[in-house]
Amino acid sequence: MAVRSLWAGRLRVQCLLSSTAAWENKGWPLLFSTAIQRTAGEDCRSEDPPDELGPSLAERALRIKAVKLEKEVQDLTVRYQRAVADCENIRRRTQRCVEDAKIFGIQSFCKDLVEVADILEKTTECISEESEPGDQKLTLEKVFRGLSLLEAKLKSVFAKHGLEKLTPIGDKYDPHQHELICHVPAGVGVQPGTVALVRQDGYKLHGRTIRLARVEVAVESQRRL
């Protein structure tokens, strides 16, 4: 664009110079030469924009864009810091909840066991205070009643908390639930490979075995160990 304007101004100047030369050859005064030259110069200046206008606009646009980007970076930085703080708070609360669950997770179970301890303590006190020397029958009856009440309470507490006693007699041997002590010969009505005798009861908590039952497993006579 600037090159075209330059060429247009140069052509005007050449035309003016040729006209001036023609007027001078004829001896006519150049009354409007100065005005014509001034007009030509103004036309050239009006068509050629200043060189400083382009760079200043571009620089201004870049500055505006830089300011916008800087604000966006600051906003994203603040959001990131808030997100990190929130995650840290959640982690701390979760860790506190886990620790509380470990400590107080058996609170309800312990509360029920306290009632069992109360029954045992009352039974012991009753036997020691009311029994007469030589009256062993009465003493044994009180002990039996106290132990029966204690057993019933324990079973109630176990059932309430999902603790179940394993009764594997006659069941097929399962290494995930039974601990084999020894083999015994299979008797009448006892199938080989099944539990013939329980030495120690096993327990499950909500379906998960927490203690294996110690058992004796029946085998055929020739396979006895």
UniProtKB/TrEMBL annotation:
Keywords: Acetylation, Chaperone, Coiled coil, Mitochondrion, Transit peptide. The keyword Repressor does not apply. It comes from the Eukaryota. The keyword Phosphoprotein does not apply. One of its GO terms (cellular component) is PAM complex, Tim23 associated import motor. GO terms for biological process: protein folding; protein import into mitochondrial matrix. It is found in: Mitochondrion matrix. InterPro entries: GrpE, GrpE_CC, GrpE_head. GO terms for molecular function: adenyl-nucleotide exchange factor activity; protein homodimerization activity; protein-folding chaperone binding; unfolded protein binding. Its main location: mitochondrion. Residues 59-93 form a coiled coil. PANTHER family: GRPE PROTEIN, GRPE PROTEIN HOMOLOG 2, MITOCHONDRIAL. Essential component of the PAM complex, a complex required for the translocation of transit peptide-containing proteins from the inner membrane into the mitochondrial matrix in an ATP-dependent manner. Seems to control the nucleotide-dependent binding of mitochondrial HSP70 to substrate proteins. Stimulates ATPase activity of mt-HSP70. May also serve to modulate the interconversion of oligomeric (inactive) and monomeric (active) forms of mt-HSP70. Belongs to the GrpE family. Probable component of the PAM complex at least composed of a mitochondrial HSP70 protein, GRPEL1 or GRPEL2, TIMM44, TIMM16/PAM16 and TIMM14/DNAJC19. This is GrpE protein homolog. It comes from Callithrix jacchus. The gene is GRPEL2.
